[in-house]
Please model this.
Amino acid sequence: MFFTASPLRRLLAGISVTALACAGLLSTATTNPVGATTTGIDGRTLSLSQDSALVTRAVTVSWDGFRPTRKSSGQYGVNIVQCKGTPTALDTDCFMNTRFPNADQGSIYYGATTKADGTGSANFEIRGAMDLPEFGCAVSVPCSVLAYELTGDPTPAGQMPSAYAYATISFAPSPADCPAVANFDVRLGGEPSAAPLLYGLAGSACLAANPLIYDVTETSSNEGREALFDGQIDAGITDVPATPEELAAHPVVQRVKYAPLDLTAVAVVFLMKDSRTGTPITSMVLSPRLVARVISDTQVDSFFADPEFQALNPTIGTKVNWPAAGIARPLIRAEANADTGLLTGWLNSNPAARAFLDGADQYSVSVNAAWRGISYPTDIFESRAAGSGYTPLTTQRPVGVRMFYGVNPSGNLTQTDFEGIIGVVDLPTAQRYGMATASIVNAAGVGVAPTTESILAGYRAMTLNADGTRVANPATTDPAAYPLVKVDHAMVTNALNPSREAALKGLLLQTVGSVQDSLPFGYVSLPAEARAQTTKIALNLDALISGVEDPSTPEQNIDQAPDYSGTEYGDSSGNQPMPDTSPAPQDSATKTIYRGTARFTPVVAFPTQNGSSTLVVLFLLGIAAGLAAIAPGIWRRFARRSVS
Model:
């Protein structure tokens, strides 16, 4: 999703933009078309569930006036591709490539179906300039989506298909609209779930006069903290606090503060179709024990026969026919990250899940021997049985993209009416790709989906640590609470370069300003006390650097660092809950580097959960005067490693 039109960026993009009458299911709310220009042959029309203020995301593409697809031969099936703004030749103006996973980037799915009435629809991943640099689709570069019939005759070079329709699309501001930059005023890195929020701010602000230029590196909470301690970045984005061991290893860091940036969640997502009808399955309830069965790769071929699964997901009256071959190995992240810690902490807090993992299952399902007695929580998933096909993937994006396209961890396309797929992603990723999201059973025994209301209920049950971090409390018995909630924090220390103080201050204040009332998909507005915490930290960065601290501001001091063992990932012991605030082969290791610019005073516009662009007027913040000059430190960039 962000900035650098280079071979590396194309590799990081990984998988398709084009095509796709996708195997996925677009389950999140979408908007009606908002005025796209449609051009078609012989009355054919095309519309999109969202056609303006776009970012890289999945949309529903619908067509009318096409010839019905012949089931026996597949003739008049429909292809969908992303094109330049006004395409005149399929081969040069549209992104054409072979079907994933046989290409580094690009996917053409042959055979989207047109019904007898001439209509049809399919899910399609639209990509902005940072994920499809060949076309550079951005505010300044409009693009289009083309659907065309497979007539059986090839399209001649330099020409359009004989039967098609296309609709123009426009994009939200992104760093692709920004001038090239060489130096950054502030650098952040870490938890990827915060990135979409930061990207929206960056893209809207970059063209203003006297911009503040900042760099966002998307890795993990763990790597964000490490990079901050090593002086590579100015703020680390993390869901959990630094451990005493991390602090002790970096004695220059004496004071740490955690500024809440956003409220979101971890989601258990699935992709599968009814084995008889081929209709996408959109509803599923999973208990901690069932998720433990998925994660431990235990008898996945008979997963739908599990007595608890059948009790939670009755098919009588609903006529759901689960995939005949069960489920594939899970799509999960390989590198150490906070989301894995949150999920495994939730599993560990549940007696039935813990008993299952210990080999004492109440339904007599024998846990995979490689996972028996495993110690949870942990922040890393790893393959524990050679040759099993259990292949966690490095970084969030490969997990999300493969989930959308129906590709299993080994890189093979899956017929999801025969074998379903279950995975774990953050909620912004789930909603951006329209993934079906499972309801999960909380400690009160209630299956809850990650909605605004359930996430806020989970937030109210979170543990507020002495250092100001908020971590999930999966043991809460509030029946309305979603257990896998999380807050992304900007972690800052006394080692912050004073020359970057004003820039970081402006960014923090923007992030928790009125933007919180018009957020992108996958976020819930931060409650007032969390916003106030960030505002106070932002306005007192000079005190953090100097050591003249306001005692009312939560901080973490190395000499008084609490012991988070057992609580880092949500164990409720040892801390008081927050008060109610009611009103094997795998993708090679990579650090995805995104660049953008921002400034203090722009009008900010980015896509919100209702698909519109909301204008947010941000206050002018003056550069703090009187900062003592210091010698610049040596700031190392994150290593750039390509995805294989």
